[in-house]
Amino acid sequence: MKQQESYRKEWNASFARGDNNILYPQTEVVRFLNRHIAKRVSLSEVRSILGQEKSATKDVNQEIRPIRCLDFACGAGVHAITCEDFNIECYGVDISEVAIEKAKSNAKHLGFHQLVNRLSVIENDKQLLPFEDNFFDAVIAESCLDSMPLHIAKRYVHELKRVTKGKIFVSLISSAGVDGFVGDAVVEAQHEKDTIQHYFDVSGVCELLACNLEAFVEIKEVLTNDVATGRAVEGRYYCVLLAE
Length: 244
Fold this sequence. Notes:
Number of domains: 1
Shape: globular
CATH architecture: 3-Layer(aba) Sandwich
CATH class: Alpha Beta
Number of helices: 8
Order of helices and strands: HHEEHEHEHHEEHEEEHEE
Helix content: 25-40%
Radius of gyration: 18 Å
Oligomer: single chain
CATH topology: Rossmann fold
């Protein structure tokens, strides 16, 4: 419990400083939704692209339910709110109480009041998610599994696969921008200070997600290069895989 509570403390401090008050969705998350889950075709219309058998299944009472998505480590809730805008019933979880309160405030402010009760803090230290097997049709794990020690991230990946019957979007920081360093590092910069950052290469991505390259629906590495030197100053992997 001490390790997990310390981890929570550092992220509460980070969100309290405003380090991660992200209010606009990441482009790759929107692309994931548009390509794999539901496509917005106009300001007033969203079309499911999961298929009838996945997007509108019947429960024991024979009632049609909406597409469900989990925004894992949801932070201030921007991607959960984006899902709601796509007519997707989203749930958000985060280790930080400060983040969840900000997410609830943002959802209320933007008129997504139904989302508020689906945002919650992960309370335990065993990396277990409070959802039934196959509860979700999709999962978003944007810039989060690389912001924790690798052994903890692996346990969360196992849980994400357990609670999902569809596709999982994962974004991970590449080792390209740190001269190929792979592994855990304590963040020393003011932004996210004292939290853990894990840098990945391709084999590390496969290790974390417990699959080989052939198992990905999509995987790409996007690099930002300095024009003068040609050196990669930043890199990130964007992955889509099917829950096993």
